[in-house]
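User: Fold this one for me? It's Stimulated by retinoic acid gene 6 protein-like.
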Amino acid sequence: MLPKNTRTRQLNGTCTSSVDMELFLHYSLIPSLFIILILSFLQRREHRRQRDDTSYLLGNRFGIIMPLDFVGTFSNRWSYGIAFGATANKVMFLFSEGYQPLQIPQWAQAFELLIGGIEVGLSHFPFFACLSSEFQLVSSILGFCYSLIWFAVTVLQVSQCPHGQFVGKYETLMFYWPSLLCLAFLLGRFLHMFVKALRVHLGWEFQVEEKSVLETHQAEHVKQLLRTPRPQEKKKSWFQTRIYEWDPCFQFPSRMIGTIVLAFICLYLFIVIEFCVFVYVRDELDVFENKLESYITFTNHSGVLTPVFLQVKELISVTKGVWVATILPASLTCVSYLFHILVCYRKHIKRLRAGDKHFLPLKFHNPASSASVVAIARYSGWQIAYILWGYLIIHVVQSLCGMAIMYGLVLPIVHNQGLEMLQGLGIGILTISIFVGLMILQMCIAASFFLQPKLGTADKQKPLALNNRKAFHNFNYFLFFYNVLLGLGACLSRLLISCLLGTWLIARIDRTIMQNGYEGADMGFSAWIGMLYVDHYHTNPVLVSFCHILIANHKEKKLQQTTKYWCLNHSAGPRVSARSRTRWFLLQTLINNPRLIIHRKLKSGHSSQESQILMACLES
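Assistant: Here's what I get for Stimulated by retinoic acid gene 6 protein-like.
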């Protein structure tokens, strides 16, 4: 009888779902384009074309729909982030180059990936367009229906074939539950938008005023700059000092929130895919091990190749154990990088706002404007790709380190060779200690005999002035030949440390792994710097506050020019109270438009009979 796991895989190997997700992606473009056309029809263009232009026939309809502002959006951030999370499965298909909508030659694969990316973006465009649309009553209905379609199709796909061929039970659910959770959140979000828009439409709530250019946290930041700095009375905790301190005057833009959310989900999916591949490779290795075991049993452990086969079996067993054991530390490393990227983003933006560019290489102090604009378009996608490839590379490096520990420390003890292992380890540590000790001894001799005394008692170190020159030249001569051999070890240690740091920090796009002067070759770091400059120039609170003041003054002047009774506000006589001025404007409006009187709210002292008499007088 077959094991349970094997039976599950065989059952799901023949499972065929009635829903083809790739085919559904193609057909989803039809409702997507329909929603885009409706929202575009509702969106009015600010500038109408001339009569000789054919688009004049459309009037001011069919404006350009914007999914979201990638630079200056600070509201509704988590909704946009969850909408990005709903695209995670399709992003992973694009990342693995498994989604190929067209069959074109190999040399044109870049165009095929571009077309696939545009198709995926267009199929998920309604999520963002409905969230950012001004016409919330219509957009909430359209967004809810479109999200419900995706949710229903995904649930149907999971329910028909819940198991898989690698992990076994509920393998499909493991892949699709993040997208289902994001789609469920979007359904709730669109339902909340519909209820709120409906209440406004029925007059139960007031319409939200036009969104200001200046965000609340930006205004608070400017106020904080204008206040007199006070000494900190409250002592910061260890978490605030070493890890992160909340700043109410700073908010991450929607692009950063969406990038981090999508990176988390894609990292999870990548780990699941990697584990599925590991399960497949492990099963193949188990078959190979069974063949080796059969050969060893057949030869009764007396074959010529038996020791080699035993070592191969041990290598396979160690590799499988180390690979599984290093999944968690590699995952935690990349997760910590995602949080650290947010911390570095806030730190770098604050330094740029303060005019501090010393943390940047010299060639990045004035980057090209076109490169910065392209960088902000590249950053989010590149950050996710760096995290995924970084996880794989870190996992491989940690596995190699784990195997070195196993073969260097653990297996000798298992094979009763602990004393030999300790002896070799002691000799190696002693050798390295002697080399390091001689290097430290050179430093001590140089500080004690070949430098002149301190100029003052407050000096931290001796001045760079030679003393005992003859002894110094003899010291250099005799150590010259020894340092040639010592330099070989220093060169190898430099190579080893560079490889370890480079592979360990490969996922960190905010830090370059190139040497000084070659930072421009690091395209990921260049994208990071360009993105910082775009955000700095477009979301700087001082600049946005200045623009807000200009816009407010312009609106006030425009209102003054269009107001018929502007002279009453700025007469040379005594100042009129705001209440009196409002009542005067109300009187003038009611005189010019008497039918507005019947729509006014009656005071508690007036009866319905008086209102009927007033209406009869107006009709007469």
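One thing worth pointing out: The radius of gyration is 35 Å.
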